[in-house]
Design brief:
By secondary structure, the chain is α+β, with helices and mostly antiparallel strands. Helices cover 41% and strands 21% of the residues. The strands form 2 sheets. The protein has a 6-stranded antiparallel sheet. It has a 4-stranded antiparallel sheet with strand order 3-8-5-6. The longest helix has 19 residues. It is globular and about 50 Å long.
């Protein structure tokens, strides 16, 4: 059905030949892909990956990877420099089109790979300048996470006739990437006037995710940026619009909701794993910030 639709519209389906080559490797075990759906702007693949290190030639598509479990360490190399991040479930890996990729996965995990055409990305952007996506390692974007899961759900359910719905999802995905994940080709520059650099922000977020269940003084966060606590707090708010405490609290709530929806741990255990002192603390904060409760989140999964 998907192939007939593709032929009728004269479109070229995006396939594994349009990817960076990761999915052809023996350490990847695909569970499902969008092959046969007739999608010309996006290719989706869901799989289990084993530890590996490899370098790949530039691909014509932008690569977005959603981690389905974890945390697992990923190392990315660029020239003589390397960055390593322990990426939790829900973390993103973003690699722009037409760039070489040197990556090392230090543990097994499940992932959803999305390969997006540059035409789709540029078409969702209103500015005259072309979008240039950033290289991201372990970033978080709840909207993109939900869009990726929705697209994977279409593939999992075999909904070949859902082309209008898929085009809507792809448009939203491309627009969010263009709006929130463009890098201007300089990942180390200031994200906004007076704010943290992208590298500093990545370091702070990485420390927050690594120690999400622990008390985390502002001084420890400032230390990874090379700033004093007062400088760090000012620049962090300039970059995010939030205090470090507010940002960390949002990460903890995101982690708690994910565990409640996908895991079987008791709510009290989820609370402690996410940095709350006990179940009642998690319930109080979730009700105040999100208007719901842990029990309601679990029932809705």
């Amino acid at each position: 059905m998907g192939t007939l639709g593709k032929e009728a519209q004269g479109m070229q389906e995006l396939g594994i030949h349009d990817t960076a080559g990761i999915l052809r490797q023996p350490w990847v075990s695909p569970e499902r892909t969008s092959s046969g759906f007739g999608w010309d702007q996006l290719y989706v693949s869901t799989q289990r990956e084993k530890p590996y290190r490899a370098a790949f030639d530039p691909a014509p598509t932008h690569l977005l990877i959603l981690h389905l479990d974890g945390p697992v360490a990923v190392r990315r190399r660029s020239g003589r420099s390397a960055a390593t991040r322990r990426i939790p479930a829900g973390g993103l890996f973003l690699h722009p089109a037409d760039r070489e990729l040197d990556v090392e996965l230090l543990g097994g995990l499940g992932t959803v790979h999305l390969y997006l055409t540059d035409d789709a990305l540029q078409g969702a952007h209103d500015e005259p300048r072309p979008v240039r996506l950033a290289e991201e390692l372990g970033s978080s974007d709840p909207l993109i996470e939900q869009l990726v899961l929705a697209l994977d759900g279409v593939v999992r359910r075999g909904e070949f006739s859902s082309r209008t719905y898929v085009d809507h999802l792809v448009g939203m995905l491309a627009a969010q990437l263009a709006r929130a994940h463009s890098g201007g080709g300089n990942n180390d520059g200031e994200r906004s006037t007076g704010g943290l650099t992208r590298r500093q922000m990545d370091s702070v977020r990485g420390l927050m995710e690594l120690r999400i269940a622990e008390p985390l003084p502002v001084g420890d966060l400032a230390a990874v940026t090379g700033l004093s606590p007062s400088q760090f707090s000012r620049r962090f708010r300039a970059s995010t619009g939030e205090s470090p405490h507010q940002f960390l609290l949002r990460l903890r709530l995101d982690r708690a909701r994910r565990l409640l929806r996908t895991g079987a741990q008791p709510i009290a255990e989820v609370a402690v794993l996410c940095g709350f002192s006990h179940q009642e603390h998690l319930t109080r904060v979730m009700r105040a910030k999100l208007g719901t409760t842990p029990a309601a989140v679990r029932r809705s999964s």
